[in-house]
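Customer escalation, tier 2.

The customer says the design service returned an amino acid string that "doesn't look like it belongs to this structure." They asked us to rerun it and document both sides in this ticket. The original structure tokens are below, unchanged.
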């Protein structure tokens, strides 16, 4: 008899879908979207509808492995769990006895579950006194920009986009990376809404919008300031809203008046009329909604760009309507009890140094010094594939290849990172463990119950840290908590756990139009155009356009700007090894505009070198109108070992940081491209 188990999609995507897994005699037959969950609406993306292919993949790691050959040789031998855990604990103890800060966790959002991400792991590393990891690789520039302006990662309720009359899809390829939002946008379109896509790449989403504004990467703040200029000049302003619910209007007004559309058009590389038309539409259409996404903040000025854009809805009073305003991330709405879950009290007064995950390449190569602290001697990697996803991979690989570095990787698969491990520990997939999920694209809590027993000898991340804690002699009772108990701890009494057990999801009780009467969660309670907090740090109190670190046209040797947004059928570097999905993507490609291709004698299908001072990678060129002149698109994120020359796009990206949030600048990168003669 088949049974159906309620769960949640674990992947790093704004949609966080509710899943139904059909199980027969302990075997998961299929995974579907839960029709009872409104946002999922019974539909899944191609990737996750094949989740059972991932769980039962023939190449899944199903037992602990220990390195035998030299680092990176790829030679491992199977070991029992006890032997592996004893070996790891023994090594960590020796390092910790000198300085626990020489041990570093490295994790991101392989699973977004509150329990299998940092639930037990944070307790373990706090108790150990390991270095903190600054988890910046995706969203901190925009997150900080938003928080300085609106007070948190808060915004419109996503369902009301369906009622908007104008939607700006800004720095988001929604069809690829936010499919359930796209369904709402289409509903709005059918009701007469106008859709505008703001993106240097002519994405699948841009194809389906009424208008596409193909600005240069990293110029969004200039566009936003010019829109403000037009709102002011034409008096398309909601004076009452500005007066009642904002802070710093006079300063912002003065700043925006320095940005006539002609100036922004020059910076953005777009026609003046596109700006003036967009300003008119935004200033005169009600309700107007902005779906901002993280694609536009992976550049030097990403934080300021988000600040500038986040000012727009207040200027026109868009927040008054439930279908007006802006959504970048909804995650700030969730009342997660981090103190109870992560137990920072286990630090017991110690204040370990912090390592930024973006600069792991450089940091693994640093020696002990007063400024840096101890050399990194051990890395515990879980829920992440840094060798493929972190910038400037030449450095990252060199760091991971250090013979004296002790690396443990908890994984489903033999990733590029696992290749460089000392121990690989088999992790359970979402079908095999408990978890509880927040979302950054909607405001429902989802519970994930295990549908099947762990495959092979796989264990949940939590269990690995529980077992390591015991071997390290950490005897606090919190290391005994079961996964179900951890699930209950995440929200405490703030969410009815019995309802989650019964239905699989619960909707947070939030107002339909959160800022219709102001009430922003900032210090002033207003939308802060001017940030006293930033000014106190010696930074600009007002948002501004900050040019890229690597401005297009500034280098004769590297004249092309490169962005590297995700391929539709992968999720960052996850799923690259699922053959049916890899077959759809084909092989790594670089999209290049016909003019740029012609100037270099490059034809579609030809192998090219993409290079700068940081390195070089190779893939096939695709001459395509999806690329604008001067900008090439290296779709990501392939596993290095599956690429033609054993590298991927991050071979050329840089470890420089954003203006706010210490984030990465993946899309702020100059390169040159050249054809490779066949046979070379
Ligand atoms: N299918 C799929 N879905 C995913 C992911 C995936 O890898 N695959 N990744 C997930 C993750 S981790 C995240 S963070 C989100 C990311 O999803 P998004 O936040 O949507 O970000 P990106 O996909 O990085 O970029 C979105 C668009 O921004 C454009 N862009 C690049 N530079 C600029 C710029 O300077 N200005 C503007 N306006 N646009 C720019 C890119 O061309 C791209 O089309 O998606 C999640 N969903
Ligand atoms: N050039 C370029 N680089 C980028 C980006 C880009 O757009 N361009 N995007 C950036 C962004 S937005 C992000 S978020 C990062 C993403 O970087 P990562 O968070 O590292 O994401 P993934 O590459 O998906 O790797 C996640 C790994 O976790 C594993 N995993 C999944 N679930 C579990 C589990 O339950 N337990 C354990 N132990 N492992 C698990 C998966 O098998 C997978 O190998 O990449 C960044 N890198
Ligand atoms: Mo991300």
């Amino acid at each position: 008899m088949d049974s159906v188990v309620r769960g949640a999609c674990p992947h790093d995507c704004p949609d966080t879908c509710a899943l139904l897994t059909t199980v027969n005699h302990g075997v998961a037959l299929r995974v579907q979207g839960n029709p009872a969950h409104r946002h999922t609406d019974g539909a899944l993306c191609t990737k996750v509808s094949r989740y059972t292919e991932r769980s039962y993949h023939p190449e899944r790691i199903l037992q602990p492995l220990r390195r035998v050959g030299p680092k990176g040789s790829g030679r491992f031998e199977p070991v029992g769990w006890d032997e592996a855990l004893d070996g790891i604990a023994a090594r960590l103890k020796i390092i910790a006895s000198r300085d626990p800060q020489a041990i570093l966790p490295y994790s991101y959002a392989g699973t977004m579950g509150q329990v299998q991400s940092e639930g037990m792991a944070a307790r373990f590393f706090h108790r150990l006194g390991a270095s903190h990891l600054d988890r910046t690789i995706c969203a901190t520039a925009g997150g900080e920009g938003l928080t300085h302006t609106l007070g948190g990662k808060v915004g419109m309720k996503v369902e009301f986009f369906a009622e908007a009359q104008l939607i700006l899809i800004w720095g988001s390829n929604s069809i690829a990376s936010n499919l359930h939002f796209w369904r709402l946008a289409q509903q709005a379109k059918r009701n007469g809404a106008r859709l505008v896509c703001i993106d240097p790449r002519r994405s699948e989403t841009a194809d389906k919008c009424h208008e596409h504004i193909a600005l240069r990467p990293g110029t969004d703040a200039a566009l936003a300031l010019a829109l403000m200029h037009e709102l002011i000049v034409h008096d398309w302003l909601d004076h009452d809203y500005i007066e009642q619910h904002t802070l710093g209007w006079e300063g912002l007004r003065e700043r925006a008046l320095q940005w006539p559309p002609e100036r922004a058009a020059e910076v953005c590389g777009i026609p003046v009329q596109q700006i003036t038309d967009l300003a008119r539409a935004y200033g005169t259409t009600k309700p107007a909604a902005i779906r901002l996404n993280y694609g536009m903040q992976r550049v030097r000025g990403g934080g300021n760009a988000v600040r500038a854009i986040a000012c727009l809805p207040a200027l026109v009073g868009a927040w008054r309507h439930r279908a007006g305003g802006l959504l970048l991330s909804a995650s700030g709405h969730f009342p997660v009890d981090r103190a109870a879950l992560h137990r920072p009290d286990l630090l017991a007064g110690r204040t370990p140094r912090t390592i930024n995950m973006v600069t792991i390449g450089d940091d693994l190569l640093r020696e002990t010094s007063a400024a840096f602290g101890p050399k990194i001697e051990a890395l515990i990697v879980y829920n992440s594939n840094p060798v493929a996803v972190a910038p400037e991979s030449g450095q990252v690989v060199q760091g991971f290849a250090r013979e004296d570095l002790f690396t443990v990787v908890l994984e489903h698969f033999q990733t590029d990172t696992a290749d460089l491990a000392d121990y690989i520990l088999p992790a359970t997939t979402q079908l095999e463990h408990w978890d509880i999920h927040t979302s950054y694209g909607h405001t429902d809590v989802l519970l994930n119950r295990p549908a099947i027993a762990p495959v092979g000898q796989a264990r949940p991340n939590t269990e690995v840290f529980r077992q390591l804690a015991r071997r390290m002699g950490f005897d606090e009772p919190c290391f005994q908590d079961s996964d179900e108990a951890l699930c209950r701890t995440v929200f405490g009494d703030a969410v009815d756990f019995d309802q989650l057990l019964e239905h699989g999801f619960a909707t947070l009780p939030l107002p339909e139009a959160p800022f219709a009467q102001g009430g922003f969660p900032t210090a002033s309670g207003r939308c802060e155009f001017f940030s006293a907090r930033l000014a106190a740090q010696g930074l600009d109190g007002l948002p501004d356009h900050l040019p890229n670190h690597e401005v297009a046209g500034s280098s004769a040797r590297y004249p092309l700007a490169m962005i590297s947004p995700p391929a539709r059928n992968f999720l960052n570097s996850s799923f690259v090894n699922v053959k049916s999905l890899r077959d759809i993507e084909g092989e790594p490609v670089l999209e290049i505009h016909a003019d740029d291709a012609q100037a270099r004698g490059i034809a579609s299908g030809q192998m090219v070198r993409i290079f700068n001072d940081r390195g070089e990678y190779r893939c096939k060129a695709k001459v395509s109108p999806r690329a604008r002149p001067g900008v090439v698109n290296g779709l990501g994120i392939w596993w290095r070992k599956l690429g033609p020359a054993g590298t991927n796009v991050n071979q050329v990206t840089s470890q420089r940081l954003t203006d706010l949030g210490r984030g990465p600048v993946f899309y702020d990168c100059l390169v040159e491209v050249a054809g490779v003669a066949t046979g070379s």
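Tier 2 assessment: The sequence is consistent with the input. The two ends are 58 Å apart (CA to CA). The pocket of MGD (ligand 1) is lined by residues 12-13, 138, 170-173, 176-177, 198-201, 203, 217-218, 220, 293-296, 299, 563, 565-566, 568, 570-572, 667 (CB under 6 Å). Sent an explanation to the customer and offered a walkthrough call.
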